[in-house]
Amino acid sequence: EKCKVGYDSAEEWCFMLQLQGKSALGAAEICNKTGGRIALLDSYKKIEILRTYINEKKEFLLASSIKTQEQDLMMSFHRIRDMSDYADRYCKTYKRFKLSWSTRKLYIPNSELPIHFDANERANRTTPAGFIIKTSSIPGAGLGAWTTSKVPMFTVLGEYEGEEHKHEGDMSYSWIIFEDDEEEHMHFIDASSLAKSNWLRYVNCARNVHEENVKPIICDGLVFYMATKDVGPNTELLTWYGENDGRSLGITRRHPARDLELRSTNYVRVKYKNPYNLDNHFVLFDPFNKKGRHIQREYDYSYYTGTAGLLLPFVCEHSPVDTDQIYRWLDPRNWQTFGLFYNFYLKSW
Ligand SMILES: C[S@@+](CC[C@H](N)C(=O)[O-])C[C@H]1O[C@@H](n2cnc3c(N)ncnc32)[C@H](O)[C@@H]1O
């Protein structure tokens, strides 16, 4: 037998399907321990052989209980998508009827302001009944907006008020509004002034999908905030600021409202060698997809899954022929080294 213990022979390769769910790093570690490495897809033939190999073990894979994470992820994704659809509908109605009965039904207006008050108290004084401004649940984030009673899903928490500029002001309280999708046609709604904003300025940025419960609806040059879940009492309202602002707050996670490309809940993690740039990286391999779309780039889904990322089954391999080594020689980035070796070889010969 050419394959090591625990490995199965599949044509010229030796594979081992691991049904335990692991992160990319955890998987690499286990493959190392068994004397192999993460299976590397570097030829069409190998992809086909690996597909056949996994298909033979299909029942085990389908029976493994670790799919719940992918299912959660897809559900969260669809929920976020549904919220976008709902927001679009809300906006259409708003554009036609403004705040009429239909858009006002689930709309929470600012608290009414007294006639005389300190101008800088405006923002806080607009806080409606059922909400309170107090220290955020996020360490170091300052103040936050909290519920004191239940808020049903789809409740519009009001309009994000601020000064409208054409120039960039204090970006930490600004929404950028693109009018008709053109960069030149944009403005900012800047809530940095306490005298010219309302309580929604205190809504902080969610760090993950579990705590995210508010969606900005950008509509008709304005921004509304809408609850995307039934929110219980004494819960902080948190929304996703967008990738740029998220990043500047140290939240580098990808918010998959943009593009969650998962199509399956049967992924197996392997590596893939890109034939164009010879880069090799982790991919999600869907061995049961018959339409040929079985390789999926793996993005950072930790916005959903927490820091370890998706826990997936994976395939280890060890090959009597180290194809990775061969590719290293073929990689143009290594040719300089190869040249040195070649010169040395010629000279010594
Ligand atoms: C629109 S304000 C939110 C209200 C702010 N916390 C306050 O006390 O006025 C945005 C600012 O809140 C803070 N913040 C919001 N989300 C945060 C997060 N996830 N982590 C750290 N700071 C955050 C940052 O200082 C950010 O510039």
UniProtKB/TrEMBL annotation:
Organism: Magallana gigas
Any Pfam family matching the protein: PRDM2_PR
Domain SET: 129-242
PROSITE patterns in the record: SET
Protein's recorded name: SET domain-containing protein
Superkingdom of origin organism: Eukaryota
Alphabetized UniProt keyword annotations: Signal
